[in-house]
Design a protein that fits this description.
The protein is mainly α. It has helices at about 5-15, 25-35, 75-90, 95-100, 110-120, 120-135, 150-160, 160-170, 200-210, and strands at about 20-25, 40-45, 45-50, 70, 150, 175-180, 185-190. The longest helix has 16 residues, at about 75-90.
Length: about 210
């Protein structure tokens, strides 16, 4: 099953769970974020969206055949816009990033709420989705790691314990940033080198002799 089909399946699942008669753009957006999320966190550009805060049970997967639920007129228009975006990029089919990009001009519903909460604009959303597309395997571009990392991700990148990473942040040995209005902390991948220091050949040679 492709990413778009997976997103649509989750959107239908969310609609049925909420007792909705139709699948709305809100359900599609939840489905898209569920597809790109990891452990319930959808990272889009500099924004980390916790799916649990949106009422999404990210662990639970839709099971059984896909139930028949009608798409709303707004949802059909959204898919049409995604198809036009895909065509403009020369893509053979609509991908998850094309669907996400179609939300850029939306100011109502869940997308409007995200824009107000995170200060997202039409252009900043499209820029974030463009970066997300470049990071997708098979996109034709070199896979890029997220620019901003959580302390856990930064610790994993360096192969150290997360508490050691948090100590670096507390001592200001490693610059860190807090998401506006949130407790979540992020560090720049490019700053990780600041906690590394070269091992001199003399010290290395002495260690080898000791061993």
């Amino acid at each position: 099953m492709g990413d778009v089909d997976t997103a649509a399946s989750f959107a239908i699942f969310a609609a049925k769970q909420g007792g909705a008669a139709e699948v709305t753009p809100d359900h599609i957006l939840l489905g898209c974020m569920r597809v790109i999320s990891r452990f319930g966190i959808a990272v889009i550009g500099a924004w980390s969206v916790d799916l649990e805060s949106l009422g999404v049970d990210w662990v639970r997967q839709p099971a059984g055949p896909r139930p028949k639920v009608a798409y709303s007129g707004e949802t059909v228009a959204l898919f049409d816009q995604a198809a036009r975006i895909a065509k403009s990029t020369g893509a053979a089919s609509v991908g998850i990033t094309h669907l996400l990009a179609a939300f850029a001009s939306e100011d109502a519903g869940l997308m409007g709420e995200l824009k107000r909460t995170y200060g997202i604009t039409n252009s900043s959303w499209r820029a974030a989705i463009a970066a997300l597309e470049q990071a997708e395997p098979g996109s034709g571009e070199k896979t890029q790691a997220p620019e901003y990392l959580s302390p856990e991700q930064a610790a994993e990148a360096l192969g150290i314990h997360v508490q050691t990473m948090r100590a670096y942040i507390r001592s200001e040995r490693l610059p860190a940033y807090r998401l506006a209005g949130e407790r979540a902390i992020r560090v720049l991948r490019s700053d990780l080198e600041k906690v590394l220091e070269p091992l001199s050949s003399g010290a290395e040679g002495k260690k080898e002799k000791e061993n």
